[in-house]
Design a protein that fits this description.
Strand content: 5-15%
Number of helices: 10
CATH architecture of the largest domain: 3-Layer(aba) Sandwich
Largest sheet: 4 strands, parallel
Number of domains: 2
Radius of gyration: 17 Å
Order of helices and strands: EHEHHEHHEHEHHEHEH
CATH class of the largest domain: Alpha Beta
Length: 232
């Protein structure tokens, strides 16, 4: 199946989506990845996200979805968990089914016996505990530090790189949430691989990007039908 990605939100995350999706399809053997990526505006997304302008952001994404449809895509996905703040509004307008990167996470955690997770990501993701979509898993966040961590994440996503001090801040935040009872730290921001890849923080880390990519690979290789996906 031809998969479309709205990328550029940010660029580093888009590259990782492309790399990991291509690898996941190859691992399934004999499949050809049919993929189109369009480029979104991360600064526009940040402004609308911080102001909770969901309708405005949905309309900003809409022309990109039409481009993906015109390119022959059968479905689309956002390469940003932060961008999912407007998913309901976007899905109502979209000419294509949108495969959520948030909806599969609750089942993923529950299937591995994880009852409590610590969240890192955008301000909105942390404040809303993944948009309130976790039914079987409790989410923790460092409420007193959400503004600081959210700003740091925003800077990393825009720059496409993570400085040592920024990495240390994320790693320490994870340690604090583990001490507060989290069983794993979830990278609920698709650019957080810039901080955590190649690191051994001393605690379990789950990258939401990987969960999303595995689902997209199943769709791309026709192993999962779109109409069988709850919340997609």
């Amino acid at each position: 199946m031809h998969v479309g990605l709205i990328g550029g939100i940010g660029v580093a995350a888009t590259i990782v989506y492309y790399q990991r999706l291509a690898a996941a399809v190859t691992e399934r053997g004999g499949a050809r990845l049919d993929l189109t990526i369009v480029h979104g505006d991360i600064q526009e997304l940040i402004r609308n996200n911080l102001a909770d302008r969901r309708e405005e952001q949905a309309h900003a994404f809409l022309p990109l979805l039409h481009r993906l449809k015109d390119a022959g895509c059968a479905c689309a996905a956002l390469t940003s968990i932060g961008a999912h703040f407007c998913l309901a509004e976007l899905s109502a307008l979209s000419p294509l089914p949108i495969v959520s990167g948030v909806a599969p996470l609750d089942a993923y955690f529950a299937g591995r016996g994880i009852r409590r997770i610590g969240l890192l990501g955008t301000r909105v993701v942390m404040r809303t505990r993944l948009y309130g979509q976790l039914a079987r898993t409790e989410a923790l966040a460092l409420d007193d530090d959400i503004e600081t961590l959210g700003q740091t994440y925003q800077e990393v996503a825009v720059a496409g790189r993570c400085l040592p001090a920024q990495r240390d801040a994320f790693l320490e935040a994870g340690r604090r949430m583990m001490a507060a009872g989290a069983e794993a730290i979830v990278l609920a921001g698709t650019d957080l691989n810039l901080a955590f890849d190649g690191q051994d923080p001393g605690y379990p880390v789950i990258d939401a990007l990987d969960v999303h990519v595995e689902l997209l690979a199943e769709i791309a290789t026709d192993r999962v039908a779109l109409d069988a996906l709850a919340g997609a």
